[in-house]
Amino acid sequence: QGQLVESGGGLVQAGGSLRLSCAASGRTLSNYAVGWFRQAPGKEREFVAGISRSGFNTLYAESGRGRFTISRDNANNTAFLQMNNLNPEDTAVYYCAQGFSTLPGLMSNNYVSWGQGTQVTVSS
């Protein structure tokens, strides 16, 4: 089945930046859309950003629009989430996910495989 592995999380001060990576092993991530979701303590998992197989189409939640950028490197089977101007409300576990198809969706059930997540903590 393969797996997705997120990395790049950590502790950052408000206003800082982080770049999350999602590496796929044993699966061809480059054939599908990729999504990033996050889940804060006591809250539902929510969509953050999504990117099509080609990279041409992207979707963003309102919370991250203008601050977050999703991208991918199909040659290396990897996807990224660049997060700038972080604030404490961005604190959550961030997950990457492989889509069912080539276009990203907003819902969790648009995605078939998930990583274990990486913790992002933003201090004020």
Provide structural commentary:
It is built from no helices and eleven strands. By secondary structure, the chain is mainly β. The strands form two sheets. Strands 2, 4, 5, 6, 9, 10 and 11 form a seven-stranded mixed sheet that branches. A hairpin with a 4-residue loop joins strand 7 and strand 8 (78-83). The model has no long low-confidence stretch (mean pLDDT 96).
The proportion of strand residues reads over 45%
Uncertain residue ranges: none
How much is the radius of gyration in Å? 13 Å
Total strand segments? 11
Topology pattern, helix = H, strand = E: EEEEEEEEEEE
Q: Name the overall outline.
A: globular
Which structural class do the helices and strands define?
mainly beta
- Mean pLDDT, rounded to whole units? 96
Distance between the ends = 40 Å
Biggest beta-sheet profile: 7 strands, mixed
Total helix count?
0
Task: Assign a percent range to the helix content.
Answer: under 10%
